[in-house]
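Limitations
The structure tokens in this dataset are predictions for the assembled complex, not deposited experimental models. Users should treat interface geometry with appropriate caution, especially where small molecules or nucleic acid strands are included. An illustrative entry is reproduced here so readers can see what is and is not provided.
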Amino acid sequence: MMREIQFMEKRGAFGLLSVILFIASLGVIFTVGIEKSVDYEGGTKLTVQFETGDVQIADLRAQISQVDNKASLASMDPEFNKEYSVKIKNPEVAEGKEGEASLARLRGLEKAFGSFFDAEAKRIALLQGLGQQTIAEGLVAQNPFLVEGTDAEKQSTYGTLAGQIVSALDGEVADIEALAAAVETDADKQLKLSQTLLLLTPALNRTTEDLLAVLLREKNPLNRASTEHYEDVARDIIAYRESKDDFVKDFATMTEAITLRANEDKAGLQQFFEKNFMLGSFRIVSNETFSPSIASEQLTEAAEAIILALIGILIYIAFRFRLGYAVASVVALVHDVVIALGVFAIAGQVLGSELSNPVVAAFLTIVGYSLNDTIVVFDRIRENLNAAKGGQVVDHMNRSINQTLSRTIVTSLTTFFVVGVIYWFSNNATLEDFALPLLIGIVIGTYSSIFVASPTLLLWHASRPIDS
Amino acid sequence: MKTRWIVIAVAIVYSGYVLLSHETEDSWTFSTDNITKNIQLGLDLKGGIFMQLEVDVEDAVDHYVEEQAGTIKASLEAENMTVGSSDPQIKERRVVLANLGSTINQEVVPEVKRLYRDRWDIRGDANQLTLTLREGAIDDVKKDAVTQTVYKIQNRIDQLGVSEPNINQVVGTNRIVVELAGTDDQARVQKLVKEPGQLEWRMVAKGALNFAQRAEELQPYLKPGYKILPMKEGEGFYLLEPVMMTASNVSRVMASRDETGFPAIGINLDRAGGQIMDSVTGQPDAVGRQLAVILDGKVLTAPVIRQRLSNSFVISGSFSAGEVDDKILQIKSGSLPASVRILEERVIGPTLGRDAIRQGTTAAVIGFGAVMVFIVIYYRIAGLFAICALFINLLLMLGMLAGIDAILTLPGIAGFILTIGMAVDANVLIFEKIREELRQGTAVKNAVDIGYQSAFVTILDANITTFIAAFCLLLLGEGPIKGFAIMLMIGIVCSIFTAVFCSRTFFMTYLRSSTTHRTLSIWPLWRGAAATSPQ
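Predicted assembly:
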């Protein structure tokens, strides 16, 4: 028989430790506070990926602070310097104008990103190359001013506008917005016009396969029959782009990689791309925007989910065991969640971790996991107490903890290990968001099922002695 | 025992079948390529746009009241009444009619009440009659505003070329969830979601119907203003004359009945619209021709003109009452725009999910491999059984994921990996109990039986609590977290089955294969040669 470790004897010391940790965590939570992510606070979180690692974080920070002075920047891959995430919390947005605001913000950031590659100058050059006829056709198709009426009416309105645009392009215009301002005075129309002009100058490296197929079908550069699609061409282009680290460098080699039908003209297709597309040296990997109203709603939902889970579990344990066990496990649970939150708050300061939907999901998992552990121990305590013929309750408890100890350690280790792999080896921000609170929770949950749950149960028994 | 193996075999074969076979309308294939087709990926993994919109229903009611002030006046005048003025009081949701009279000496007020009392609460006299929109009617307008917006977005979504768009009203709210895979062009999607529909009325040109497929190539040869649009489902094309009227000419669209009593769409036009209609349908050859109603470049309906029409007519044509309601909302979306707020917008580029799947798979493989090594070192033969159970567990989880059409999200991948770690827990519980029994000198077969029996209740209790927590996660909204919760629940169900049922079957078979089992290989390797039950 292995020697028993006297866990329960030291319950006073560990109890004190837990109380201190608990109070300290509460202190940290209420003084330092837990940073909330944009999904609970409202705002935008955007990840950008550059073609090269040449953009320095300080330069980029200077650029994006001009878009919004609350914008914060973080590198996602310090070793390659290609991916950055931008967060803008709680930007001021007029109610009902969320969509316009998010597009304006996106556009501002795109200009900031493009400023390292003269993207705006390239865009203007592309528009110049399109010519009045094509611009007019594009405007009629998009109908930015919502002109109602016959096609002839639309053609005349937008034909005139396209003429003005072409002559404005001959002068000095810095970007699309300046161009729109040169031909249109109304602010709302300016915005709609510049959005349409942006649609006319797509960047190949930022186009999805589906959209590329649609754009090609609209323009029909290979003179295919109207019922035919361009999915094959789009697929080839995207496959080529993926083979080149997701960035096409020039249209000539790209067109080479496309398989066309026998009678179709590759040179013509290349010219078409050069005329209608720009390449683009960055891509928006993801862009998430939450209005303040949906954010506060999600926070409430998260709180409700956690409270509901606690109540549900309490009822289940009270039903399966006795009330004392339920109370003790909930004490351990609250202990775990509060300390995990405290550690998470500190992690927020050190690693920049923020409370987000995945994090809350992870915390709920901690709730489940911590109980899992506690129940295994309690189950054994109940079994031993029921079979006990005399002896001290405290000794039976200690024996139960010892009997389940190796299981507790093995399970905690395997779980800790796989979650640790996610945290250290996945290189994925969302997965890491999940893994960190889980890691914290596994450690604390294991500790509490030995040092918190059982002593609490003992306290309960001390006030109500049980006889089996 | 035999039954046990059959159950296991069925579970494995079924999961494999669900994962590997793929059925389309005209073909059936069976290969590993189908795994990716059978497991549905969430937007966060395949890339796309998720939007949560809120239709401004109050605004829609405001629009409605404003529009009704004009419509009611026009309709009453069509019923031989005179209306001094008709003023909308938008905030109060009412229309005030002043100085009502009749050209044929009828009682005006009862007549107005007869016409409008179903939607309006009517008070006052012919000098000043106040029509207040009833609560029920307000709710109808709000409901319609949401449905109408859903229709509008659905109608024009193919402009984006996305496959399987998902546009749904969130039940019981004014919200609409739009999920579009394969696009990340926010500007394009916002434009499509927010702009009012473009409604056109065009005559179908004479004699032109089902001609060649190359219709769009004819476009340059058309007379100015003419247009070719497809009929529904590739039946051919309409050749359409220039636009005759737009949404601004339509003053009211409502459910009505044709002369034979079948459901029909009632249309009221404004004065200008009425005149256009009168002159077009008054042409000698007009009767028998088709008039097309087009929304955002799609022909909604193209009824045949039966007689000369003016500002009030019905469109009928073996519609069901439901179809009539749908068409009405579609036509209205061109004239009565409800403004839309964007509450939430998540745009995921195509590379993010691809990279995440790769990263997640790497993490899963490393984690799984390490757990396997550890378990074999720590539990030896018994550990091998646990690992076999773990493999079956993985297969069943994937099979279940595909089988119940659950959606795999990025958090779901985290849930999947987490479940690998937790799945061994059940086996660990059992094995520790068996070791304990062996230590006390119980015979091998009994020790195994006791281990499984006594651990089962504990496993059930422990997993049910995690299950409750996972279930509460479903409350965290529609997003990717749902994928995590579902994955966790799938994992719990599968791991109980594999760890308790499958691994026990392995044990039973192993123990029966030899009659002289005095020892069991369940002790850690580092106990060396003495790794047997210390009896």
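Some entries come with short summary sentences. For this one: Chain A is about 70% helix and 5% strand.
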